[in-house]
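User: We ran a pulldown and think these components assemble together. Before we commit to crystallization trials, I'd like a predicted model of the whole complex to look at. Sequences follow.
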Amino acid sequence: MTSDARVDSPLVFGFLTVVEQPSQGLVGGYLLLNAQARPLEFHCTAPVRASRTQEILYGPTLEPFLYGEQIGRTLFQACQQQPTAIFTDRPSALAAAEHVSAPVWLVLNDDVAPNANSQASVATRGSAAIAALAPAANYRADTAHKGVAGMHALHCGAYRLACRAEDAARGVEDRIEAAVATFDLEEPFERIRAAIDESQRGAR
Amino acid sequence: MSAASEGFSWLATNEAAPVLRSRTFYPSSPQSLRSPAPVQPAAPMTIRERYGLRSPIVAEMERPSLSICAEESPASVHSWEPSTTRIETSSYLFARRAIAEVATVEPPAPAPIDVAVADDAGADGSNVLARLRKHNRYTRLKPPGESVKLADRLQVLLEPPLELLLENQCLELPQRPFPFQMDGVAFLYPRQAAMLADEMGLGKTMQAITAIRLLLRTGEARSVLLICPKPLVSNWKREFQNWAAELPILVIEGNQSRRQWQWRQPNAPVKIANYELLRRDAEIITDPSLRFDLVVLDESQRIKNRSGAASTVARSISRERSWALTGTPVENSADDLVGIFDFLAPGHLHSSMTPQRMGRLSADYVLRRTKAQVMIDLPPKLMRDADIELTPEQREAYQMAEEKGVLKLSEMGDALTIQHVFELVLRLKQICNFDPATGASAKLERLMADLEELTASGQKALVFSQWVESLNVLKKRLHRFNPLEFHGGIPSNRRDDVLQEFREDPKRRVLLMSYGAGSVGLNLQFASYVFLFDRWWNPAVEDQAINRAHRIGAAGPVTITRFLTLRTIEERIDQVLRDKRELFEQIFAGAASPKTRLSQEEIFGLFRLKCPAGPMTPVAVPTYADQPAIETMTPAQ
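Assistant: Here's a predicted model for the assembly, 841 residues in total across the polymer chains.
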């Protein structure tokens, strides 16, 4: 996962999300899809729970640490294929961008009506996400988040996407637009959640 | 110091100590396995892992450490540095076949989009997906219960919703299916063994074709065999052209050498054969070298008799997947379902099971929807029971025949068999239709009055009888209505013409049909009246007949008139039919009913005869031309 995605390579899109299991902790799921939206790889983590020490020491940066460094990086390392781009519906998972060569885009969809009961609804996280994207607001100022730059927003079809400015500079926006034409960018997260539920059910 | 943490892993509990590692899993389906070379060397799977069971929490995670070094310095120094945490992951890899590896033909230009569909779909249908997205109304695939391995279940769960799957495979549909039809496709597509048992008229054909199309398109199947009753072959061919125009269809027909060549044709992804060929070409079909990825049995009740040739051959076909399509999975007894399951999942059901247990065990394999459940917009089905008094001539002939017949049966003593009882039943039923001496018929009088009225209003009607002889009489007596005929006496190469003429010619408003030839698979939704001139033994066959007209596409209410002559054998049989309906409900709707089959007492009780003692064995009663065998019970000889 060290080299940039080649422009002429087959389109492979990664979808990263984190599910909070109340009794167990955070479970990360990472799904790689081909251009037909069919699964190529799926990886999920064991539940991760921050210790009290971590809660104290990481403070407001705990979530980006868990989502990005702990979960995101672990999942990227387990993966065999290199995606063209990675999408996430969790703002804190943007921190994972530092551990992968492909750009990580946050999916925001304001067209969806807010649903207080739906963890899946991006809209409910929309405002928080924007806030999270404010420079350094929730980012650690240590080695994990060096040089946080401004965020880059992109309107693409029904979606608003955001990523780190340095990722946006990689010139993959045309491929992102191709993805949006093919994909419902929110739908794969539902698949990941269903798969995590299924695996957790098996665990019980 | 390392912080305690909770987590889980895929490690089996019999391992001595928790070890952090990644595991890679592959779905078990041979078609989808990516050939060898996972990056992670696969450790041998334990039983717990193989069956998707999760072990208790054993993961250990390294955590950022916090050291307290009180002894090194007069003042305590607390130092901390972040360290890498290793987390257990589970990985699943899916191999993808190239698209469109099957042969295809150039489909005709798409039909104009239906106005109602276009209205909210947009000219190219693109808005449909947007709407589905907005309301999260996707049809998602669900893993079948038969999938034990977690990797297999995840493979299904991680597939895109059906709508996206179709769109991304560039599979256009000529019409937008109803949501329940999409559910049916999603049910069939991932299953190795499945029975689609929707009530007649809900589009089982379209659902099966779309699922077949997806399997072929995604490379999960390359060779499909569809077996159907002979009269339905042309219907299937037409439906394939409509719903999967790009697929080359090969109908197995002709002389033996031609068929032998056709069976072995590798470039025909879909082959259609009729049940009769199962017997004739048994040697070829059961040759293990002839293998199909999918075998679909339409009207699968044809193999309910496990000792029959069709069932034996169908079960012997070398295949990967087995699907059954039927609107009547239980026609006579719960054994019918066992017969079909011997093809789908051998040994899964047994005759000794209670209907309730059968219903539970078959639930994951069977998808059944009724019109009442899914078709809110389908026009109503109006059932009219026409209770009719026999004409004096008929009554006299009937009474005489019954008295003589019962007397004769009573005198037979131990030689009495069910066949003898049935001969009398059929004789009496014929008298209920027409007086043999004078031709008088109370039913006909009523029928003519009704036809007069409905043809005057431009409506079309189907008239069903179990006898070709009765249909011939009806044809003469209904001459002024210019009726068409569709029964076993009509050559099969003329039948499509008859149906086309009935469909298109406004002067042809009445179609006389036999239950045997006209009860299954035909789309006659332009007829708004159905008359059951006489009653069949099996309510499922009656339902099949009714649903030729009452199905998707019906423009208005469908009125069904069931003729029943009072104080006759027809009235007694009607009670038997009601009991059979109860049995069906018991298996497929969970309704309680103690009866599972006709008892010996009930059969003989039609004439208040004392039944012979002894166990009963199945027997096929000799039948009249064009009439399928009536399966019932007879005392063991």
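Chain A has one domain: 12-203. That may be worth checking against your pulldown data before setting up trials.

User: Thanks, that helps.
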